[in-house]
Amino acid sequence: NETMKALAHRGRTVILGRGGYASLNEYEDVLNVRLQAPFPIRVERVMTRGNTTNRLRAEEEVKEDDKARQKFVELFYNKQWDIGSDFDLVINTNIVSTEMASEWIIEAVRALEQKEFAADAVTAQRAKVDPILLDAINEAFERSVTPFDKDL
């Protein structure tokens, strides 16, 4: 949680999974996005990505993944993992293309970055974070960023 808070404090960071939405839900300057699709679509995707034709095995894999996510969020955050109202933006990837979902998320981030927060607003930018942890994160990002990425 402290690492996620430091990442959010740093800004312009995507945290995929790990209960980030639950850990960072108190911050007004954090965009919580949920990507979802109906069960049969997720099974098809597992079959395609895993190069398997075994539908039963793919269904079991999706069920196991759902159960693990559910247990993780309930155990560590005492929340249900699939409640849409816990998110700022929920996108059904069966209907919305990857490209469109990306555009929506980028636009939502831009809108959030333009928002002015009240002086007493709870934001990740104002959160107190461990300076040593933040330095380590910044150093790791500097080492991993390619020249192409810096142009973004």
Give structural attributes:
single chain, 152 residues, mainly alpha, 7 helices, 2 strands, globular
- Unreliable stretches (pLDDT < 50, length at least 5) are none
Q: What order do the strands of the largest sheet run in, or round the barrel if closed? A: 1-2
Counted by DSSP, the helix tally is: 7
Q: What's the pLDDT, averaged over the residues? A: 91
* Euclidean distance between termini CA atoms: 27 Å
C-alpha geometry: globular
Q: Please write the string of helix (H) and strand (E) elements.
A: HHEHHEHHH
Structural class: mainly alpha
Radius of gyration from the CA trace? 18 Å
Largest sheet: 2 strands, parallel
Quaternary organization: single chain
Helix share of residues?
A: 40-55%
DSSP E strands, number: 2
Strand content: 5-15%
Describe this structure in words.
By secondary structure, this protein is mainly α. Helices cover 55% and strands 5% of the residues. The protein has 7 helices and 2 strands. The protein has helices spanning 2-10, 20-23, 39-50, 55-77, 98-114, 131-144, 147-150; strands at residues 33-36, 89-92. A two-stranded parallel sheet has the order 1-2.
Write the layout of secondary structure elements.
Layout: H1 2-10, H2 20-23, E1 33-36, H3 39-50, H4 55-77, E2 89-92, H5 98-114, H6 131-144, H7 147-150
